[in-house]
Specification:
single chain, about 110 residues, about 60% helix, about 0% strand
């Protein structure tokens, strides 16, 4: 009986964690969140310079939303200042935050541009 209770408790905890995590990932990013991520992580993403390991504050910040704010805001301006290839390195350095198969860093040129 105690074992069944433990399994049910673990299942309920898993559902709760999954629900909290998915609701955080689906939330929109505010300009402040986007700005903070670039401010704290910019040195690691800079174009034309060697890779720099991210600061702890960078990793702590992007872990909150699993890099969603950076990934969803990759624009032409991003590509002028930052290196797409360093996004995966940043994810890896901060604890493998990107889901395999995700499209972080893919800049799609709008039609007619």
């Amino acid at each position: 009986m105690a074992r069944a209770y433990t399994i049910v408790s673990m299942f309920m905890l898993t559902l709760l964690v999954t629900r909290v995590t998915s609701s955080q990932v689906d939330a929109s990013c505010s300009w402040t969140e986007i700005s903070e991520e670039y401010d704290y992580c910019g040195d690691s993403l800079m174009r034309g310079v060697p890779w720099v390991f991210p600061l702890k504050v960078c990793c702590d910040t992007i872990k909150l939303n699993k890099m969603k704010c950076i990934c969803q805001n990759v624009t032409k301006m991003f590509s002028e200042n930052f290196d797409f290839n360093k996004l995966s390195k940043l994810s890896n350095a901060c604890g493998d935050l990107l889901v395999p198969g995700s499209y972080c860093g893919v800049y799609k040129i709008p039609e007619g541009a």
